[in-house]
């Protein structure tokens, strides 16, 4: 199993990156938080890896710190929480916020994550509530602050994430602001990032 990759960051996209290790490019799926912390290509980075072996594929999931990887493992132990949903939760909530949400039975915070409805949030709370206190609370320096409320939090997080993808603040800020206004209360970090990338790629 691969424990970590250390090499050149060749490409960063929404949801994944490519890391060149001695001439071999590894496609690594990751949360917005981890991707935003990566250096601009082609600079060197070290990414912790969780390897998932399936019948039809070997998939790599990357993390900027061990706390996030531990939470990924715990979240995917819940029935109905696959890797994609777990990464969405880790993009929306920091390890510390996950600890807080689970220990206080804050179902609303969990349903902010894409793919997490009320029933799945209830299952996550039921299965993980007692284990949350023993999990790392995060707070590492490379983490992108998770948005606590729609509005300023999402705008700031999107700006940090796009900066991590190599976009200048001066070009990204007006695009994010416009999209936030257009999407209104329906705005989420994922939707703003997705539409920002489309707009900036034109």
TrEMBL record:
Pfam families reported for this sequence: HHH_5, RuvA_C, RuvA_N
Instruction: Report the locations given in the UniProt record.
Output: Cytoplasm
Which GO terms label this protein's molecular function in UniProt? ATP binding; four-way junction DNA binding; four-way junction helicase activity
Assembly behavior: Homotetramer. Forms an RuvA(8)-RuvB(12)-Holliday junction (HJ) complex. HJ DNA is sandwiched between 2 RuvA tetramers; dsDNA enters through RuvA and exits via RuvB. An RuvB hexamer assembles on each DNA strand where it exits the tetramer. Each RuvB hexamer is contacted by two RuvA subunits (via domain III) on 2 adjacent RuvB subunits; this complex drives branch migration. In the full resolvosome a probable DNA-RuvA(4)-RuvB(12)-RuvC(2) complex forms which resolves the HJ.
Highest taxon of the lineage: Bacteria
Q: Which UniProt keywords apply?
A: ATP-binding, Cytoplasm, DNA damage, DNA recombination, DNA repair, DNA-binding, Helicase, Hydrolase, Nucleotide-binding
Single GO cellular component annotation?
Holliday junction helicase complex
List the residue ranges of the region (Domain I).
1-64
**Originating species:** Acetobacter malorum
Which parts of the sequence belong to the Helix-hairpin-helix DNA-binding motif class domain?
73-92, 108-127
| Start and end residues of each stretch annotated as Domain III | 154-202
Q: Name one GO biological process term.
A: DNA recombination
The Swiss-Prot or TrEMBL record describes its family as follows: Belongs to the RuvA family.
Q: What is this protein called?
A: Holliday junction branch migration complex subunit RuvA
Role, per record: The RuvA-RuvB-RuvC complex processes Holliday junction (HJ) DNA during genetic recombination and DNA repair, while the RuvA-RuvB complex plays an important role in the rescue of blocked DNA replication forks via replication fork reversal (RFR). RuvA specifically binds to HJ cruciform DNA, conferring on it an open structure. The RuvB hexamer acts as an ATP-dependent pump, pulling dsDNA into and through the RuvAB complex. HJ branch migration allows RuvC to scan DNA until it finds its consensus sequence, where it cleaves and resolves the cruciform DNA.
Domain text from the record?
Has three domains with a flexible linker between the domains II and III and assumes an 'L' shape. Domain III is highly mobile and contacts RuvB.
Do you know which SMART domains this protein is assigned to? HhH1
Task: Please give the Gene3D superfamilies that the UniProt record associates with this protein.
Answer: 5' to 3' exonuclease, C-terminal subdomain, DNA helicase RuvA subunit, C-terminal domain, Nucleic acid-binding proteins
């Amino acid at each position: 199993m691969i424990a970590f990759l250390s090499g050149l960051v060749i490409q960063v996209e929404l949801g994944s990156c490519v890391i060149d290790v001695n001439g071999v490019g590894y496609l690594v799926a990751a949360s917005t938080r981890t991707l935003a912390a990566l250096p601009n290509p082609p600079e060197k980075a070290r990414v912790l890896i969780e390897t998932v072996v399936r019948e039809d594929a070997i998939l790599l999931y990357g993390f900027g710190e061990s706390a996030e990887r531990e939470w990924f493992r715990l979240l995917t132990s819940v029935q109905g929480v696959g890797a994609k949903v777990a990464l969405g939760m880790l993009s929306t909530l920091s390890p510390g916020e996950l600890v807080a949400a689970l220990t206080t039975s804050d179902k609303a915070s969990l349903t902010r994550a894409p793919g997490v409805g009320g029933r799945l949030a209830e299952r996550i709370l039921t299965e993980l509530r007692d284990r949350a206190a023993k999990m790392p609370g995060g707070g590492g320096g490379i983490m992108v602050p998770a948005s606590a409320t729609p509005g300023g939090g999402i705008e700031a997080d999107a700006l940090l994430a796009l900066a991590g993808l190599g976009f200048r603040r001066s070009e990204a800020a007006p695009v994010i602001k416009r999209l936030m206004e257009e999407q209104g209360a329906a705005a989420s970090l994922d939707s703003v990032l997705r539409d920002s990338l489309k707009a900036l790629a034109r």
